[in-house]
Amino acid sequence: MAFWWPLIVIGFAFGICKLLLLLIPSNVPAIDVDTSDVLDDGNQTKDNSFIYIPSRRHTDKVQCYEPATMKYLGYFPALKPDEVKERVGQARKAQKIWAKSSFKQRRQFLRILLKYIIEHQDLICNISSRDTGKTMVDASLGEIMTTCEKIHWLLSEGEKWLKPEYRSCGRSMLHKVAKVEFSPLGVVGAIVSWNYPFHNIFNPMLAAVFSGNAIVIKVSEHASWSGCFYLRIIQTALAAVGAPENLVEVITGFAETGEALVSSVDKIIFVGSPGVGKKIMRSASDTLIPVTLELGGKDAFIVCEDVDVPQVAQVAARGALQSSGQNCAGAERFYVHKDVYSSFVAEVVKIVKSVTAGPPLSGKYDMGAICMQEHSERLQYLVNDALDKGAEIIARGSVGNIGEGAVDQYFPPTVIVNVNHTMKLMQEEAFGPILPIMKFSSDEEAVQLANDSSYGLGCAVFSGSQRRARQIASQLHCGVAAVNDFASNYMCQSLPFGGVKDSGFGRFAGVEGLRACCLVKSVVEDRWWPFIKTKIPKPIQYPIAENGFEFQESLVHTLYGSNIWDRLRALVNLLKILSEQPTPTSNRRRND
After folding, report:
1. Is the fold of 72-296+513-522 the same as that of 299-363+375-454+458-492?
2. How many separate helices (H) and strands (E) can be counted in the chain?
């Protein structure tokens, strides 16, 4: 007992010290970001208060407007290829300096960002809501929490995963040290979508900057207004830690701008559609840079008969209706066991009928507007195709007080039954507030239906038996799986995120995403330098000895023989060969 007491006391003291350290406020400076031109104080000038009439033509300007009200927000330049290359060049110069920064400096940058985000949640969510039409609650869930969690994970574990990782050296290299080093790639390029304008910028930026890179991000033309403001937060935080200017850049434009970015950077991360993703791949092949593609999904939501139906129905509604279907990897196909099909549908109908869509900042609405122009027409096309093939709409939510100019920006939440896989609604990504519900009879059928898709991003499986839910999820061909939950993976930022098939490949987030921003270098060096050095054995030195191959054969037996006796016999033979005076093969040929 006397032996354990000192250890117990030391452990207790260590715990008390850690607790006291947590109580001491951290020395994180506050930053002041200019918000004068983004705050809506109700006193809008004529230039930014009129209703915007969308143009069908791309111009030299990216016009910005609030999708929920169609109020004009302003414009940003559509950068030309030479302007993009200039921005990348500036970032490259900054990266050479930042690559030498310490992890202490990088962590301080993250702490400053985290402090600002926590203290300005309302501002960040408000701007996201105005630019994309989502509600404040949806912005908080998808923008704030995920980003804060990513920062926290990087602060806790980021340095550990970027330090050299030592590996086994193998039998033949026992005198060596083997390790993997992770160094920055240079300038990372990212082309991101509009659905989460804050997180879609911060997600690749945090990984790139923490691993020593610069990054240039092309934001969507549908979310440029918010993206350019969020850049101010990043640049102000970087300046606070003495980082070089131009380390992080946000650029605006259309396809030409994105193409120029792909051809200029050292890695490209793309979040968007499969069609554009394939074009990115073709462009990236010219310079042979690594590519990460996240191309959306058609996630399956499987409900077994042994679940708490009302609870799961609430999760299903959230998965389908969040931000008018703006949620990345949203649930888009619902497969419900026949024994609970009717009760589940009834619960979902009750929920959807209580949902009201409307301008998210002008009232208490459950759902916001659709961000992209003309997307409601696309959704209606998918619904009409399903109706023509026998589907039935059994419930729709309501739409609140909408201005005349913004009517087309809303699509009421819709529940559809009698669906099947011949319908485009069950095969093509909808990105909208639609719940198509289909019944199944067995777990095997549920798996077959869920895998019958060209997409493979995520899935959610619900069962009263966690083992059963886990077994079903393990058979689904996708990159992200939630067991008895939906989208919980996003809050586990230690996990990689990405899909298969038309959902793309490569991973961001987690260790895999962090290291994907690095040049992965294998390094081998002498373990006991300079006392033991690599020396080529005499029999295989040039000119190679007559018994050179016999030496190699014995060496292989010694190292990898199937049992200890074979290896010992081979070792004896090896030592015998080494003790003999070698006869070069060239001398043997001359003697012959």
Report:
1. no
2. 20, 22
411 pLDDT higher than 80: yes
Q: What amino acid occupies position 366?
A: D
| DSSP at 154 | I
Query: pLDDT of 267-276, one tens digit each?
Result: 999 999 999 9
More confident residue, 53 or 169: 169
Confidence check: pLDDT of 284 > 70: yes
Q: Which residues 6+ apart lie within 8 Å of 344 measured at CB? A: 303, 309, 312, 313, 316, 336, 437
Q: What is the spatial distance between Cα 543 and Cα 527, in angstroms, rounded to a whole number?
A: 29
Query: Domain ranges in the chain?
Result: 72-296+513-522, 299-363+375-454+458-492, 535-579
Instruction: Please tell me the distance from the alpha carbon of residue 287 to that of residue 264, in angstroms, as a whole number.
Output: 9
Which helix (H) or strand (E) segment holds residue 523: the answer is strand 518-526
Provide the β-strand partners of residue 591: none
The whole-angstrom separation of Cα 265 and Cα 111 is: 28
pLDDT per residue as tens digits for the range 533-556: 888 999 999 999 999 999 999 999
Residue pLDDT, tens place only, 290-314: 999 999 899 999 999 999 999 999 9
Q: Tell me yes or no: is domain 72-296+513-522 CATH 3.40.605.10.
A: yes
Q: Please tell me whether residue 459 adopts helix, strand or coil conformation.
A: strand
CB 187 within 8 A of CB 238: no
pLDDT at 405 over 90: no
User: Whole-angstrom Cα distance, residue 357 to residue 355?
Assistant: 7
| C-beta neighbour count of 33 within 10 angstroms | 16
Mean per-residue pLDDT over the chain, rounded:
90
Q: Where are the alpha helices (DSSP H) in 325-465?
A: 341-353, 375-388, 443-451
461 three-state secondary structure: strand
**CB–CB of 266/185 below 8 Å?**
yes
Rg (Cα) of the chain, in Å, rounded?
30
Phi/psi at 525 (5° precision): -145, 165
Q: Which of 137, 133, 146, 114 is nearest to 64 (CA)?
A: 133
* 378 has a pLDDT exceeding 80: yes
Q: How far apart are CA 179 and CA 184, in angstroms?
A: 17
pTM score of the predicted model: 0.91
Q: Which residue has the tokens 């074979």?
A: 566
How long a stretch of residues is the chain? 592
Residue 588, pLDDT above cutoff 60: no
Q: Which residue has the tokens 């003999």?
A: 580
Catalytically active residues, by annotation: 294
Residue 462 neighbours by CB distance under 10 Å: 26
Flag whether pLDDT at 326 surpasses 70.
no
Q: What is the pLDDT of residue 399?
A: 85
| Fold that domain 299-363+375-454+458-492 belongs to in CATH | Aldehyde Dehydrogenase; Chain A, domain 2 (3.40.309)
Give bridge partners of residue 204 from the DSSP assignment: none
Q: Which residues are within 8 A (CB) of 325 and not within 5 positions of it... i.e. 6 or more apart? A: 370, 411, 430, 431, 432, 433, 434
**Is residue 582 predicted with pLDDT exceeding 50?**
yes
Per-residue pLDDT at 325: 44
Beta bridge partners of 356: 398
Residue 433's CB is within 10 A of a number of other CB atoms, namely: 28
**Do 140 and 331 touch, CB atoms closer than 8 A?**
no
Contact 69, 403 (CB under 8 A): yes
